[in-house]
Design brief:
Largest sheet: 7 strands, mixed
Bound molecules: iron/sulfur cluster
CATH topology of the largest domain: TIM Barrel
Oligomer: single chain
Structural class: alpha/beta
CATH architecture of the largest domain: Alpha-Beta Barrel
Helix content: 25-40%
Number of strands: 17
Number of helices: 16
Radius of gyration: 22 Å
Strand order of the largest sheet: 2-1-3-4-5-6-7
Shape: globular
Strand content: 15-25%
């Protein structure tokens, strides 16, 4: 067998990510398997989906003459991924195409039925599963039926293997510390992960249902990655955990560590926090941690809407959390969602009013997406959810929020965002 060429491809939308940490993890995990690294060539390609047209991407991919391609799939790139799969399969008939990522994980049957060009879908996190596929590919011993966590098609029939047990995150070497991610690629922000999973489980969100429990990278590992960012003069780092303060003790320890390595004024750190979990005693260690910006999900201040989406919201604790952040000079960015079941135009405006009264640094508006595999999607009949069938599955109306009100709220939210955020900056 010739030396296989393996491409890991990310089509990044700069509004979300500018490079793929998840593909970095996969290549990094591969390095623990000498047989793969010794007998194949592996390359990650990060494309900016806004900048590069499909022709450009295709040309780059085909020029590499890959034997295996792995794509990382999200709602924002899946349609382009499918077009690329179709085109490359025409040129490279023996190519093995593997898809992974949140968009295909829960929809493996649907995507395998939709496109004959997809050979394997990795469900759940990809590190161990992808490496096992490659290892078997290199050893010419595919036996797909033995690989946990995949779905695939043989002779037109689709198979779903058992799910793979979760990895201890510390088994994945850091792609920063072992040189897989080039510091030159880290722009404008570096991404660091401390925890996977979320202890909450809001019904519209993947994150709370994606893993059976929360897992953490070691504090030493996160410290070493932050020091790496500092050494390479990266000015902004996003800690991409779903809710960084969901475990108060761990949050305190990571803040203390960040204070000790003196990140303040050197790196701007952004995090996602649950406002209701912030308490007065956290003020001292947060203010010297280097955290300069916190994304806070409010979504709706309406009790019925929060109940409908299984979301914990406590008005007083929320207000208190924002005031603690303001006092610690950490800029709160509050997210609101338009189109929630239980909301309507007036409740949406009431949420906005509640948000401006607590003086966050910025208010951001998002449309409700009815993601496949979420509990909200399973409840679509109960809430009479009407939504677009194409990714990102944007809501059109629901039992309480008629389509014309949803449209009006979307239009007005653009003005409100500009109005409030310009005044605050
Ligand atoms: S919306 Fe936020 S708090 Fe809720 S499950 Fe998702 S990540 Fe967790």
């Amino acid at each position: 067998m010739k030396r296989p060429r393996i491409l890991l491809i990310a089509l990044n939308d700069p509004d979300n990510f500018t490079y793929s940490l998840s593909l970095g993890y996969i290549q990094s995990y591969m390095q623990k398997h000498k047989k793969i690294t010794d007998s194949s060539d592996v390359r990650i390609i990060n494309f900016n989906i806004r900048e590069k047209g499909i022709e450009f991407m295709l040309h780059e991919i085909i020029a590499e003459k890959p034997d295996v391609i792995g794509f990382s799939c999200y709602t924002w790139n899946i349609s382009t991924v499918l077009l690329i799969c179709e085109a490359v399969k025409k040129d490279l008939a023996d190519l093995l195409i593997i898809l992974g990522g949140p968009e295909v994980s829960e929809l493996s049957s649907e995507y395998l039925k939709l496109s004959d060009n997809i050979d394997i879908i990795v469900r759940g996190e990809g590190e161990a599963t992808f490496v096992e596929i490659l290892s078997r590919y290199i050893n010419e011993n595919m036996q797909l039926e033995r690989i946990l966590g995949i779905s695939y098609r043989i002779n037109g029939k689709i198979y779903h293997n058992e799910k793979r047990p979760l990895l201890d995150l510390n088994e994945i070497p850091s792609p920063y510390l072992n040189g897989i991610i080039d510091p030159a690629e880290i722009s404008p922000a570096g991404y660091i992960e401390f925890c996977r999973g979320c202890k909450f489980s809001c019904d519209y969100c993947y994150e709370g249902n994606r893993f059976d429990y929360q897992r953490y990278f070691s504090l030493e590992r996160v410290k070493a990655e932050l020091q790496y960012m500092k050494k390479h003069n990266i000015k902004t780092v996003a800690i991409i955990d779903a809710t960084m303060n969901s475990d108060t003790n761990k949050f305190r320890n990571v803040c203390k560590m960040m204070s000790e390595i003196n990140l303040q004024n050197k790196i701007n750190i952004s995090v996602e926090l649950k406002a209701e979990l912030l308490e007065d005693q956290m003020f001292d260690y947060m203010k010297s941690s280097g955290i300069s910006m916190a994304g806070i999900g409010l979504q709706s201040s309406d009790n019925i809407s929060n109940e409908n989406i299984g979301r914990y919201f406590d008005r007083q604790k929320f207000e208190k959390g924002i005031s603690i952040l303001n006092k610690a000079k950490i800029k709160p960015y509050i997210d609101l969602i338009c189109g929630l079941p239980g909301d309507n135009f007036f409740k949406f405006i009431a949420t906005y009013k509640f948000a401006i009264n607590i003086r966050p640094y910025a208010i951001l508006f998002f449309n409700l997406n009815i993601l496949q595999g979420t509990r909200l999607n399973q409840n679509k009949d109960r809430f009479a959810l009407v939504y677009n069938n194409e990714p990102p599955y944007e809501v059109i109306s629901n039992y309480s929020f008629p389509a014309e009100e949803v449209n009006l709220a979307k239009i007005i939210s653009k003005t409100l965002k500009m109005e409030y955020n310009t005044r605050m900056s």
